[in-house]
Sequence to fold (492 residues):
Amino acid sequence: MTEFLGYPFFQRALLAGALAALLCGALSFFVVLRRLAFVGSGVAHAAFGGVALATLAGLPPGLGGLVASLAVAVATARASESADVTEDTAVGVFTVAAMAAGVVALGFVKTNVDLFGLMFGNILTVDPSDLLILAGATAGVLVALAFFFRPLLLASVDEEGARAAGVATGGMRLLVLALIAVAVVVALKVVGILLVSALLVLPGATARPLASRWPGFLTGSIVVALISVLGGLLLSVALDVAPGAAIILLGAALFVGALAAARARRA
Amino acid sequence: MNVGVRFESVGVRLGGRPVVQDASFEIRPGERTAFLGPNGGGKTTLMRVLLGLLRPDAGRVVFLDDGREIPRPRVGYLSQRSTLHADAPLSGVDLVALTLAPAAGFRGLGPARAEARVALSRAGLSADKQTLPVGRLSGGQRQRVLLARALAGSPPLLVLDEPDTALDAEGLATLRRLVAEEVAAGRTVVYVTHDSDAMGGADAVFSVDGRVSAGTPLHSHGTAS
Fold:
């Protein structure tokens, strides 16, 4: 395995993995805290429709994915403010609509879009320009999270209390969903649509039972994401399996282990 | 700051049903004002309008400082049913400090945390409980955290929505003492209650049942003046 560490493509994969883990691990804290697991998954899946429609229109696929994810994020946030639609219903409707539009679009265009790569990612083919985009997006999302951390945290645990304190809770909900959309699109190449949605949930879900206060919860979420991605990459080489699947399976194993540890601690 | 509040022909409809109609009254600064009335009469709705959590369908709410119209000031609020997640990964100090300093920015929470500890101690939560996650506190202790959040930072206006429902006898005695201290310090206290004696009397009383009408001020132990 050590010879792999000397290959530039594998070094880029490790760096991309670490950046995606930082990005998704930090966001996973808010995804789990705000019970947005389904919403995060929906925003990730909406990117599929955007990529397909952009391909049909001859536009950059990443741009299409970003626009579709942001559109679903905004529509979900707006719809959930209405008394007639709940957040999970809104995301359920908009996500399947975006994916269906993608399927229709792909039917019209003879394309060599790598659907398997889109769904599961291909971290071993990350090039320097992908790394730059990922690094820039990760830095931007982390700075935004740090700047808005206090109102985001307050609105995430007590919406009415936050509103009474003057926090624009609707804006905070939209901000989280928009940051998720950005993370989804830039992490697509690394872990794919299906797996980025898992990476937005698993780290936070794993850290939550082990940490009683937010500093441990947030740090744990990022650490679990790093262990899952970097450990999964090394495992994929050692066991000769697909890296995306190895990352998520390791993350799922850590989640089960965390639940068992939390249960043992309470017993 | 001596804050008063004037409701001008406020009307609120919820689900198409009128809950409050043509409510015009004034909450005088530095006084203890009670809102009494049956369940569903619109008391909590009025408080939510006062707090800016609900936009009225008609009329407006005006905040006054020495008779001069001002923007909505910081309001300390103890809600009837808190929306705080039972498993929130925050201690009492975290929650109160975040409420005191909720604005975005890169500054630390140090001064707000110090002020939060003072408010939690005033509310009767012992120092060893102040840093525990709120999920590990008893119902009464959690209510003290929420009370501390309402009092922290000495807001000029304090709104207590049925504060006696979730507090034990000791907590209620603490609350009455704190309300008396707040009023003595010139702050305006508004509370909603079924028990007119809950806060040790009121300088002004309004009866709410779809419409708002002025009642008789109450001395302690519910005696009309």
